[in-house]
TrEMBL record:
Organism: Kocuria varians
Name recorded for this polypeptide: Mini-circle protein
Family annotation (InterPro entries): DinB/YfiT-like, MST-like
Pfam short name (any one): MST
Lineage: Bacteria, Bacillati, Actinomycetota, Actinomycetes, Micrococcales
Length: 181
């Protein structure tokens, strides 16, 4: 497989003429790299800042996206029980635990856990794709709201990251003035 070209921030460019899977995964990796870019170089205190009239922080976003990666690729796509540490969270006591608990975490640890979850998700996708003749059409059992196919999971992940990249743009600019796509 060809190595994707990178933009001036070092983010992989999605293929302009790839098939459906390559295009979706290309955009997902581009958006993941955007989150890495928007959070790099910030201290733990900066990752915990709430510079806008919102409870959202970049640190909370990193923990939330770690959960999102594990939920969709470990739990849903792979059909396993919730991965650790999410399996022991008392979600009924704090439905936003992933966001709220980040204030107790070191910034480097948040980035490291998120990057590890991204790598595990890539491997889980490769395993899933290798075990299905037509992976995008392969059925995926969703614990709530009914089943879907793998195409839906990848499209949802692109949507999830795209939404949070917009949030990250605003938060980063408010924290230290850094701007850029």
């Amino acid at each position: 497989m060809d190595t994707p070209q990178q933009d001036e921030q070092g983010r992989p460019e999605p293929p302009q003429q790839g098939d459906e899977t390559a295009t979706l995964l290309g955009f997902l990796d581009h958006l993941r790299a955007t989150i890495a870019w928007k959070t790099e170089g910030l201290s733990t205190a900066q990752l915990q800042e709430r510079p806008l009239s919102s409870t959202m922080t970049l640190g909370g976003m990193l923990r939330h996206l770690t959960y999102v990666e594990d939920h969709w690729f470990c739990h849903v796509l792979s059909g396993r029980r919730q991965c650790s540490p999410w399996d022991s969270v008392q979600w009924e006591k704090d439905p936003d635990w992933d966001w709220n608990s980040a204030s107790e975490a070191d910034g480097d640890a948040l980035r490291t856990h998120w990057a590890a979850a991204v790598e595990q998700s890539r491997q889980r996708w490769e395993n899933f794709a290798a075990s299905h003749e037509h992976p995008m059409d392969a059925p995926v059992a969703r614990p709530v709201r009914g089943d879907m196919n793998a195409r839906w999971v990848l499209t949802h992940m692109v949507e999830e990251y795209a939404r949070h990249c917009g949030h990250a743009d605003l938060l980063r600019e408010a924290i230290d003035g850094a701007v850029g796509e």
